[in-house]
Specification:
Low-confidence stretches of chain A: none
Shape of chain A: globular
CATH topology of chain C: Arp2/3 complex 21 kDa subunit ARPC3
Distance between the termini of chain C: 34 Å
Number of strands of chain C: 2
Oligomer: heterotrimer
Radius of gyration of chain C: 20 Å
Strand order of the largest sheet of chain C: 1-2
Strand content of chain C: under 5%
Low-confidence stretches of chain C: 1-13, 222-227, 250-287, 290-298, 322-334
Number of domains of chain A: 2
Chains: A mainly alpha (203), B alpha/beta (253), C mainly alpha (334)
Number of strands of chain A: 0
Helix content of chain C: 55-70%
């Protein structure tokens, strides 16, 4: 199913997958923190972190191609912002540092999200006393992303089947109408979810 | 013997005027299986939503007067909604409205947790309910990765986990493939609770229900054994229905 | 085709700051600001949001997430995307917008690696608070301007939200010494002034579509929900202006070229530092006596942030209503 694209491997099996979610989340955060705090140009340190992450990636048995593809998808944005850094003395070094650090952090998060189901992360948050309203918002959002995406696609296809006027304005108008209808449907669905929740005792 | 459900002169209308009820009287004995049928807009879903108190709380106007809904003799009122909802379990039409938790386990556990069971009890109930619907082992699956039939069965497990004495189902076989439908039908036949099924699936009514109730324009227009009622072709056609195929050669006694 | 590759995060109008760009002190400061903002929004939502609206937050978050992935064709083969902060605010109010954007950003950073985890604070501040809450108050303000006001309110608010968020981003990047202010403002804010037109257009069209079918949703937000107390306005306003003040005002002056050359020659701190808001106890963000500049900076940022955090929290406690006496809505266990 299309929803699998991002965290497709989150429910596979490997030594890394079996580690407790809290541990993985903490390790990921620690890695990111260390990477960010390292001063510019510490290439040996960056390399060490890269090796560490590579080890984890290997142990996790996630296909290399998938990891690389995700990285390649995400890099352009980082490169874009980093590119602005060149316009200052010493900019080249800053640019290189940015790229290195961002890549390491991206890799960390790709590994985290593909070795840990989102529901496990939610559990960790609950135990960490994140406010319930935020956790439930995250949970419902994750659950309904896929439903909504399917709805959105169905609506767009239906629209496209009835649109004979090409041209930018009509496309914008059609897309905006789809989004508007999606929101209305979302509110109605939210009402029904509330009904389903109260039907099973929520109050 | 107190009827499991009693609806007395129920009158109701939505703010936009759709699906009004114009005086519905219904009595359901414990253990019965009722099939509620009728054309779209007749008010079937509206009645179901009254049975566990979701309406009129949710908006719409309940006419004052002798209107009442009683569950095992107790009138449904804002004060006793929690206990009513333990007694009456409602399976909604769209599983996506009902399956709102990140994993199957969490979703089936939702009801028991709301009712205050401790974690060990919750785990037991969830295991039992999933086994009942034939989905043991799917605890860690995410809802969006399930098939339509599986989703519906998880929803049913979630309702069964609340151990209701009355099971109310809104279009349970809609959007199921033939196998899914067969499995659900077999499942429902096994459940001993009192059942009220609103459905377009007329064959289901013939196969499962002891009584058929025809609703049209907000009123009950006919009641009786499914085989007799549903082979009454003029009656069926008059109310937006038709004689189901399995009764094509059936002659009412 | 855009919709087939749902794995792609939106690129061109994306202001999600990845990890590795902002330095420790900026991360700490923005995290603090975001923490205050989100805490306030949580308290307000718990106190004011009727239980039947709680699922709406989650569903709206999914909606914003999905909406962010829709490609709107712009000139020359590029595409624009909806950011959604101001839209969420117009539909759900400022607290709802903050919660929704926080959820969206958290999911994006944890699962989609779109936007950094440590940079969450900055992204929440920029997109949730500046764009969402800030945009909301622009919306309310413009509406007061009579008949033309109510027509222009949504597009103006959406545009302002986008541009302000971009300016804040540029300020944060500059404060981190990554991108010089003049370049940053030109690039980010400049681009977003154009992209903001797209955001304004899309947001307006969406609001129009909603008002045609279910106008009571908008009416609800405008007046039906419990009236917004002064406390909420003050707290959110404080957080936003503090943040913008820190990131933007001292940087408005261009760097004298001479100073830059001197600094480079004498090998001063690699990162340029400013801000008059940090007490002079901690000169130039470096705690005296601590050897490593990186840690000293981070600690100083942390202390400064904590002080600010406590200050604003104190104000919030005074002004924002506490949880409802019955304990507020118990959120579902998922």
């Amino acid at each position: 199913m299309r929803g699998d694209l991002i965290d497709r491997y989150s429910r596979s099996d490997s030594p890394v997958h079996r580690w407790p979610a809290a541990l993985k989340l903490a390790a990921a955060l620690a890695t990111v923190i260390v990477t960010v705090v390292l001063p510019a140009g510490r290439w040996s340190a960056y390399l060490a972190i890269a090796l560490f992450l590579t080890g984890i990636a290997a142990a996790s048995r996630i296909p290399l191609r998938f990891i690389l593809r995700r990285l390649i998808t995400l890099e352009p944005l980082a490169l874009g912002i980093a590119g602005l850094a060149i316009f200052q003395p010493g900019g080249g070094k800053i640019f290189a540092t940015m790229v290195a650090k961002t890549t390491l952090c991206l890799l960390t998060m790709i590994l985290l999200s593909n070795t840990t189901p989102f529901s496990a992360l939610l559990d960790v948050m609950k135990r960490a006393r994140v406010p319930a309203i935020l956790v439930s918002t995250l949970a419902l959002m994750y659950r309904y992303l896929f439903v909504l995406a399917d709805e959105a696609q169905r609506m767009r296809r239906a629209r496209a089947s009835r649109t004979f006027r090409p041209g930018r304005w009509w496309t914008w108008h059609a897309l905006a109408t789809v989004i508007g209808q999606l929101f209305v449907r979302s509110t109605e669905r939210a009402e029904r979810i509330y009904a389903a929740m109260t039907a099973r005792g929520w109050s | 013997m107190t009827p499991a459900l009693e609806v007395r002169d129920l009158r109701f209308s939505y703010p936009d005027g759709s699906e009004a009820l114009r005086g519905v009287d219904l009595r359901v004995a414990e253990g019965e299986c009722i099939g509620l049928i009728g054309p779209n807009g007749a008010g079937k879903s509206t009645i179901l939503l009254h049975l566990n108190g979701i309406l009129p709380e949710f908006g719409g106007r309940r006419e004052p007067g002798s209107s009442a809904v009683l569950v095992f003799g107790e009138p449904v009122s804002p004060a006793n909604l929690a206990s009513i909802r333990r007694t009456v379990g409602l399976l909604f039409q769209d599983p996506d409205d009902q399956l709102f938790c990140p994993t199957v386990f969490e979703d089936v556990a939702f009801g028991p947790r709301q009712f205050g069971l401790n974690e060990a009890e919750v785990r037991q109930v969830v295991a039992r309910s999933l086994a009942m619907v034939g989905l043991a082992g799917l605890e860690t699956r995410a809802p969006h990765r399930l098939s339509g039939g599986e989703k519906r069965r998880v929803c049913l497990a979630g309702v069964l986990a609340c151990e209701p004495r009355v099971l109310v189902l809104d279009e349970p076989t809609s959007n199921l493939d033939p196998r899914g439908r067969r499995e659900l039908k077999a499942l429902l036949a096994k459940i001993p609770a009192t059942k009220i099924i609103a459905t377009h699936d007329l064959e289901l009514v013939v196969e499962l229900c002891s009584r058929a109730v025809v609703l049209d324009g907000g009123k009950i227009v006919a009641e009786g054994p499914p085989a007799d009622l549903l082979s009454d072709e003029p009656l069926m056609l008059a109310h937006g229905l038709e004689r189901p195929h399995i009764l094509q050669h059936h002659h009412p006694h | 085709m855009g919709e087939e590759r749902r794995s792609l995060p939106p690129t061109s109008t994306n202001t999600h700051i990845p990890d590795g760009f902002l330095d420790a002190k900026t991360l700490a400061v923005t995290a603090g600001l975001a923490a205050v903002g989100v805490t306030t929004a949580v308290r307000l939502a718990q106190a004011q949001l009727p239980p039947r609206r709680v699922p709406l937050l989650g569903v709206t978050a999914a909606f914003v997430f999905a909406a962010q992935m829709v490609n709107f064709p712009v000139a020359g083969g590029t595409s624009g995307h909806l950011l959604g902060g101001t839209l969420a605010a117009v539909l759900l109010g400022p607290s709802g917008a903050v919660l929704v954007m926080t959820a969206v950003l958290t999911l994006q950073s944890l699962i989609f690696a779109d936007g950094g985890v440590l940079a969450l604070g900055a992204n929440i501040f920029n997109m949730g608070m500046v764009s969402g809450v800030g945009g909301y108050y622009v919306y309310r303000g413009v509406r007061l301007l009579g008949a033309y006001g109510s027509v222009a309110a949504v597009p103006v608010a959406a545009w302002c939200g986008t541009v302000m968020a971009a300016i804040a981003t540029a300020g944060e990047l500059s404060l981190s010494g990554v991108v010089p202010w003049s370049v940053g403002v030109l690039a980010m804010a400049g681009v977003h002034m154009v992209m903001g037109v797209g955001e304004a257009l899309i947001t307006t069209l969406v609001v129009l579509a909603i008002s045609r079918t279910r106008s009571e949703i908008l009416a609800d937000e405008a007046g039906g929900l419990p009236s917004r107390g002064m406390g909420e306005t003050v707290v959110f306003g404080l957080v936003i202006s503090l943040g913008l003040g820190m990131f933007v005002s001292p940087l408005a002056s261009t760097w004298p070229d001479g100073l830059k050359t001197v600094a480079a020659t004498l090998g001063f701190l690699e990162r340029a530092v400013t801000t008059p808001l940090v007490p002079s106890l901690i000169p130039n963000y470096v705690l005296p006596g601590i050897a490593s500049p990186a840690w000293a900076t981070a600690l100083a940022g942390g202390i400064g942030t904590t002080a600010i955090f406590l200050l604003v929290l104190g104000v919030a406690r005074l002004l924002v209503p506490r949880r409802r006496p019955d304990g507020g809505p118990a959120s579902p266990s998922p």
